[in-house]
Design goal:
Strand 1 (3-10) and strand 2 (19-21) form a beta hairpin. The chain has one domain (3-150): PK beta-barrel domain-like (M1 Pyruvate Kinase, Domain 3, Beta Barrel). By secondary structure, the chain is an alpha+beta fold. It has a 7-stranded mixed beta barrel with strand order 1-6-5-9-8-7-11. The longest helix has 8 residues, at 50-57. Helix content is 14%, strand content 32%.
């Protein structure tokens, strides 16, 4: 059974909390259109499971989707069980490839200061966009089997440097 997309979030500038939007346009080899983190690098899109966010909401119940700077909030799929190189299909057309799990929490993280913890460094998933399209909350998200993930695999997108912030 596939999981689902709970929220799609965007920020125009880096360092800002992302805001939920009604839909997102994901562009191949670029990321989420209009988002500050989109571009030719390995962390074009970030995902965080609602199940991870709930760990912090126990302490900070008013925490909104996008507070961890995640682009996509999922529900019902174990993102951490997938691993680097695995692919996800979102909606009817989008394919993402996992390039990184977790990242260093920036200094002055308000969530860590308030709660003593932040899940993004351990449980955030970063991806590059293999195939783009439109995504809306409620759309399905599922891990692709190895055979499905390699069909039509494109090697045209080079992995650019990682100093994108």
């Amino acid at each position: 059974m596939p999981g689902k997309v709970q929220a799609i979030c965007i920020s125009r500038n880096k360092g800002e909390i992302k805001e939920p939007v009604a839909q997102g346009h994901f562009v191949e080899a670029h990321g989420l259109e209009g988002d500050a983190h989109a571009g030719p690098w390995h962390r074009q899109v970030s995902l965080l499971a609602d199940e991870s966010i709930q760990k912090i909401r126990r302490i900070l119940p008013e925490l909104a989707d996008g507070a961890f700077a995640e682009n996509i909030v999922t529900k019902g799929i174990d993102l951490l069980a997938l691993g680097i190189g695995k692919r996800l299909e979102l909606g009817d057309e989008i394919i993402l490839e996992i390039t990184q799990i977790g990242k260093e929490c920036h200094s002055g993280c308000a969530i860590r200061e308030i709660t003593g913890d932040c899940v993004m460094p351990r449980e955030g998933i970063f991806c590059r966009v293999i195939r783009g399209g439109i995504l809306r909350p409620g759309d399905p998200v599922r891990a692709l089997a190895e055979r499905e993930a390699t069909a039509g695999k494109s090697d045209v997108f080079p992995m650019a440097g990682t100093d994108h912030a």
